[in-house]
Amino acid sequence: MVLLNRLLDILYPPKCVFCGKILEPAVGFVCKVCKEKLPYTRGAEIKRRGEFFEFCLAPLYYRDAVRDSILDFKFGNRPGRAEGYAALISECAGENLDVDIDLITWAPISKKRFRKRGYDQSRLIAFSVAKALGKPAVKTLDKHTDIPAQSSISDPARRRANVMDVYAAVEPENFTGKRVLLIDDIITTGATMSECSRTLLMAGAERVIGACIARAD
Ligand SMILES: [Zn+2]
Question: How many C-beta atoms lie closer than 10 Å to residue 211's C-beta?
């Protein structure tokens, strides 16, 4: 296994998830330069408040290299970056999550979007965060309607209306009475995270806390 990993590292050297620079062995997922320069959230800004979720952890601001990296992750066929983002989220959760969590879940994309993209980016992050935190990753939601991308709408009320009732709980017995950590890639107005949280609470979740890679300013 060690040999196989070494061979894979030579064939596909790990690259910084933010700038794409080839990393020195055993450096992790982010190069030294990015590690120092990234727009980290601090203090009260780490926990974004919202409706139906208690707060959403976000280690970074959604701007510059972070924005480019996440857009490429979603639209440039780069599922491999999920592990690097998950490491940042897990570290942030380790330092800032003062609530016990029972399971990790994610805000899903629609089946149509999945067929086009080939992977559900937040699901990949959720599985990696679950592994790091030693908790199960559980599918709890389906996005049953394909809606215009939230990023194509700027008005907060319209964004809210756009996601209304588009999620459905999946096997609620798996999360009834549980404390759920809900993963999404980014949080902007909070409409998606609120609607997913509302659906989970309605279906019996005890509390919902969010976590994502980055928050809009
Ligand atoms: Zn870098």
Answer: 30
CATH 3.40.50.2020 fits 39-215, yes or no: yes
The pTM is what? 0.93
Q: Please give the structure tokens belonging to residue 90.
A: 């897990």
Residue 79 CA to ligand 1 centre (angstroms):
17
Amino acid at 177: G
Does the pLDDT value for residue 1 go beyond 80? no
pLDDT in tens, 70-106: 999 999 999 999 999 999 999 999 999 989 999 999 9
Percent of the chain beyond pLDDT 90? Answer: 80
Closest-CA residue to 19 (of 84, 77, 83, 79): 84
Cβ atoms within 10 A of the Cβ of 123, count?
Answer: 20
Q: How far does the centroid of ligand 1 lie from the alpha carbon of residue 178, in Å?
A: 37
Could you tell me the distance, in angstroms and rounded to a whole number, from the CA of residue 1 to the centre of ligand 1?
27
Q: How far is CA 177 from CA 19, 69, 165, 205, 206, in A?
A: 41, 36, 22, 5, 5
* Domain ranges, ordered by start, for the chain: 1-37, 39-215
Q: Is the distance from CB of 190 to CB of 57 less than 8 angstroms? A: no
C-alpha 23 – ligand 1 centre gap (Å): 8
Determine how many CB atoms are found less than 10 A away from the CB of residue 101. Answer: 17
- For residue 77, the number of C-alpha atoms closer than 13 Å in the C-beta half-sphere is 4
